[in-house]
Amino acid sequence: MTSNPLAWIEDELEQLQKAGLALNIRTLESPMDAWVTIDGRRLLNFCANNYLGLANHPRMRRAAQEAIERFGVGPGAVRVIAGTTALHIELEERLAAFKHAEACITFQSGFMANLATVPALMGAEDLIFSDELNHASIIDACRLSRAKVVRYRHNDVDDLRRQIDTASGYGRGMIITDGVFSMDGDIAPLDAICEVAEANGLILMVDDAHGEGVLGRGGRGIVDHFDLHGRVHVEIGTLSKAFGVVGGLVAGKRSIVDWLRQRGRPFLFSSAMTAPDVAACIEAVNMLEESEELVQRLWRNAEVMRQGLVALGFDTGESATPIIPLMLGEAALAQDFSRRLFAAGVFVTATVYPTVPMGKARLRVMNSAAHSPEDLDKALAIFAQVGRDLEVID
Ligand SMILES: Cc1ncc(COP(=O)(O)O)c(C=O)c1O
C-alpha cells in the first residue's frame, strides 16, 4: 500500500491544536461594526481594522448599491483585456489628489499591491533594505522579486545606515518599511529613513496599510504626517482597513504607477476590484475630504482606551496609534484572556506565533471611530475584570 502523501499535514494540524496555536475563526452573523453578533450574542468589537467605522456606514452601502445598478457585480476579465470602468479611473484620480501624489493605481488588495510593486521594481541583481518587522506581504513580495534582502533592526536608522555602508556589488537599491507596524502600533521614522534613501540614491517605499485614513491631515497617510510629499517614491495602501471596503493602492511617482500598469503582474493577470467596492471607496474619499470628524473621533477613542489600559497597569508596548497591544507573553495566557473577554462580551482575538514571535503573544485592541463613549467605558471595565482574574494586573 502507498503511504498517504498528506499525512504530514494532518500531523502538523494536530500539533497546532495540541500546542493551542491553531487559529480559531469566529463566524459573524452581523455586519462589521462597533458591535457584532457571534453565536447569537452581541459583542463589543475591538479586533477589526474598521478604524473609521465605514464598513457598514449607510453612505458606503448606498454607493455600493448604486454602482451595482450601473455596473453590475463582476469585472468580466482583467483590466488590460476587458477594459476598466470609469469608476476605477475616478477612484485612482481621487486617491492621488487626496494623498497629493502624482498618480495612483489600485489592486485587489494591499497584499496584491505589494506583490505587484516590489518585483516590478527590483530583480535578481538588486538589493532591498527591509525593516525586520515588515508585514508578511512585503516579505513575500521581496522573495518574489529575487533581489537580495538585507533586514535592518526594527525602526533603527543607524543600523539601516550601517547596512547600506557595508553593502556592495548590487545594481538598484531600495528601502522598504511599514508605515505603522501592525502588531505593535508604532510608527516608522520615515523622515529620517527618507534622508538616508536620498543620501544613498535608493528608492523609498512605505506600506501605509494602517496609516491610510488614520495618520496625516484628515487621514491622508504617513507621507502627509511627516510632510514628505514628493520625496517618498512609492506608497502602498489598503482599502480594507480605514476605508472599510477591500482593495489596495499604490500612490507616488507617475513613472512607477505607469510602470505598474505595464509590468505589475497582479494588475496584468488578475481581475480588478469590483464596481461596488470601488464606488464605496470613492464615497470614503468624499467623506474624508468633507470632514475630519471621523479621524478625530478615532484618535480621541484610542487615547481614552490607551490611557485607561495603562492606568489599569497593562503593558501597551510602543504603540503610538489606534493599534494598542496588550503584551501578555505566552500564547496560552493570551488565548485564555481572549476567551474570558469573549464570555464577558468583548471580542478581541489573541495574536500568537507565527504572527508575532514565540513568547510575545498579545491582544491587539483595535480602536474605531464607531465606538461610543459608553462602549469604551464598558470595554475598560471588562478588561480590568479579566486582567485581575488572570493576575495580569493588580
Ligand atoms: C502592513 C500591511 N500591508 C498589507 C496588508 C494587507 O492588506 P490587505 O488586507 O488589503 O491585503 C496588511 C494587512 O494586514 C498590512 O498590515
Can you describe what's shown?
This protein is α/β, with parallel strands linked by helices and 394 residues long. It has two domains: 21-50 and 292-389, Alpha-Beta Complex (Aspartate Aminotransferase, domain 1), CATH 3.90.1150.10; 58-290, Type I PLP-dependent aspartate aminotransferase-like (Major domain) (Aspartate Aminotransferase, domain 2, 3-Layer(aba) Sandwich). 44% of the residues lie in helices and 16% in strands. The strands form three sheets. The protein has a seven-stranded mixed β-sheet with strand order 3-9-8-7-6-4-5, with helices on both faces. The chain has a three-stranded mixed β-sheet with strand order 1-2-11. Strands 10-13-12 form a three-stranded antiparallel β-sheet. Strand 4, helix 6 and strand 5 form a beta-alpha-beta unit. Helix 5 runs parallel beside helix 6 (136-145) and helix 7 (157-166) runs parallel beside helix 8. The longest helix has 20 residues, at 293-312. The chain is globular and about 55 Å long. The chain starts with 6 loop residues before the first helix and ends in a 5-residue tail after the last helix. The structure holds pyridoxal-5'-phosphate. Pyridoxal-5'-phosphate binds at residues 109-111, 135, 137, 178, 182, 207, 209-210, 238, 240, 248.
Radius of gyration: 22 Å
> In CATH, what is the homologous superfamily of the largest domain?
Type I PLP-dependent aspartate aminotransferase-like (Major domain)
- CATH topology value of the largest domain: Aspartate Aminotransferase, domain 2
Structural class of the helix and strand makeup?
Answer: alpha/beta
What global shape is seen?
globular
Structural domain count: 2
Order of helices and strands: HEEHHHEHEHEHEHEHEEHHHHEHEEEH
Number of helices: 15
